[in-house]
Amino acid sequence: MKNSNTITFNDLPNEIQMLKEEFKSLKLILTEFIKDSKVKEATKKEFWTVEDIIKLTGKSKFTVYSWTQHKKIPCFKFGNKLYFEPDTVLKWMKAEKRYTDKEITEEADELIVQSNRSKIA
Questions:
Q1: What is the pLDDT along the chain (121 residues), one digit of tens a residue?
Q2: Is residue 95 in some structural domain?
Q3: For tag attachment on the chain, is the N or C end more exposed, with fewer CB atoms within 10 Å?
């Protein structure tokens, strides 16, 4: 009698694939949790500094200054220091999101379904 927890040699490829998918899912959850923790901690401040943006994004000081110089990130200057409004930066970050192929396909499929519904009605 085979125990339901027993894995045979033939089962290994499927089991490994399942483990890879579960690991990938856990990695995404953990990454989001860490980002959320950083955001929650940072949003306690009224204004962010360049150092806060570096901590939040994981980018270098050079990159952040480059973003400000090319007006890619919303900020303002007071004296010789740059400041960022947390809500504005978070909106900017969300607007810069790059969608996965799966998300694009799902959105396209939904638009096609909606288009077909309007043609039928």
A1: 456 678 888 888 888 898 899 888 888 887 887 777 766 666 567 899 999 999 988 999 999 999 999 999 999 998 999 999 988 998 988 888 788 888 888 888 888 888 887 777 6
A2: yes
A3: N
pTM above 0.90?
Answer: no
Whole-angstrom Cα distance, residue 41 to residue 38?
A: 5
Domain of residue 21, residue span: 11-42
Phi and psi based region of residue 71 (left: phi greater than 0; alpha: psi -120 to 50; beta: remaining):
left
Please tell me whether residues 17 and 54 are part of one structural domain.
no
Nearest-angstrom CA–CA distance, 91 and 25 = 25
* Dist. CA 106–CA 78, nearest whole Å: 44
- The answer to the question of residue 113 being in a domain is yes
Instruction: Determine the Cα angle at 92 with ends 88 and 98, to 5°.
Output: 160
CATH number at residue 50: 1.10.10
